Amino acid sequence: MWSFPLLPDRASTVAGDVDAIYYVLTLISLVFGGIIVAGLVYSAIRYRKGSKNSRVGAVHEHLGLEIAWSLIPLGISIGIFVWSSKVFIDMHVAPKNAMEVYVVGKQWMWKIQHPQGNREINTLHVPVGKPVKLIMTSQDVIHSFYIPAFRIKQDVLPGRYTTQWFEATAPGEYHLFCAEYCGTSHSGMIGKVVVMEAGEDEQWLSGAVGGFTMETTGQLLFQQFGCQTCHKQESGQRGPSLDGLFGSEVKLTNGKAVVADQEYVRESILNPSAKVVAGYEVLMPAYRTQLNQEQVNQLVEYVKQLGGNKRKEG
Ligand code: CUA
To answer: How far is CA 228 from the centre of its chain?
Structure first.
């Protein structure tokens, strides 16, 4: 059979949509490019200097033609914009039931941790047919998490979380690249994504992690750094209670309100003075230099579960 692979095999639910947009854009460019080049070449030869072909009746202005070549491309552009925006939004808004995986980019490796505790370097194990949401940040410079077979690529930035989700459609191994030049060994910042068969993933996730889920590790860090000294459950402490914090709305001293999402928790650990809860002063030291990104992720996982948000212990 005739085979001319321009792109790697599609292995995620969004891959078909991404390819369709890409092919349609290429096709439109070829069609219009072809029409323009053909007209150009034809006119250049037929009406070249010294040719005897008649120039009588040459058109200098044609309102209908001008309106047509303005409105038709406008319509096509808007159509593509609407279509690709829809695909873009689908690709970036993860389904509620997506399983989460934390990714930390670091010169020059990908450090991955699953909430169940499993850690990996330059390898990402995911189940087939289930949505997976990546919560990513960088320990140093800008990296970009790129899985060509899934048609997803997302910058990974220091100082904030970025997210990306996908659902793999076929078991197997796929390339993982860093797609943003990040220093000497950028080209070595590669790995693989292992898409496991249905059922295999639960076994894999329950594999040797010594009972240390991210939440447990986060709890140990919470105690180690003495966070509970100020963030006790009772109110009236030096710091606000964290029970039931995650996902709730927090009023700030500047009169604004924010939803306590993972970005908020992360920022509040690393830079407590950025968003101060109404009624409190900034007494908390910034933990920027004391925690690495993986530890911050573990603390975020711990805070997420506090106060009956889900999986509350005991
Ligand atoms: Cu990391 Cu390039």
So the answer is: 32
Considering Cα of 291, then 297, then 302, then 303, what sign does the dihedral take?
positive
**DSSP H helices in the chain:** 15-46, 63-92, 200-205, 214-224, 262-270, 293-305
- 104-143 burial, b at 16+ Cβ within 10 Å, e below that, comes to bbbbbbbbbbbbbbbebeeebbbbbeebbbbbbbbbebeb
- Per-residue pLDDT, averaged over 128-148, amounts to 94
Cβ of 143 below 6 Å from ligand 1 = yes
52 CA to middle of ligand 1, Å? 61
What's residue 280's pLDDT?
Answer: 81
Cβ of 180 less than 6 Å from ligand 1: yes
Q: Which atom of ligand 1 is nearest to the CA of 181?
A: 2
Token pair in block for residue 19: 């390819």
**Ligand 1 atom closest to 141 (CA):** 1
For ligand 1, atom 1: residue with the closest CA: 143
**What is the pLDDT, as a whole number, of residue 312?**
36
Cα 111 to middle of ligand 1, angstroms: 13
Q: What are phi and psi of 259, to 5 degrees?
A: -90, 130
In ligand 1, the atom with minimum distance to the C-alpha of 180 is 2
Ligand 1 centre and the CA of 136: distance in Å? 13
Whole-angstrom distance between the N-terminal and C-terminal Cα of the chain?
A: 61
Q: Is 214 near ligand 1, meaning CB less than 6 Å away?
A: no
Atom nearest to 187 CA in ligand 1: 2
pLDDT of residue 234: 62
3-state secondary structure of 217: helix
pLDDT tens digits along 171-193: 999 999 999 999 999 999 999 99
Per-residue HEC secondary structure of 275-312 comes to: CCECCCCCCCCCCCCCCCHHHHHHHHHHHHHCCCCCCC
Q: Using DSSP, state whether 2 is helix, strand or coil.
A: coil
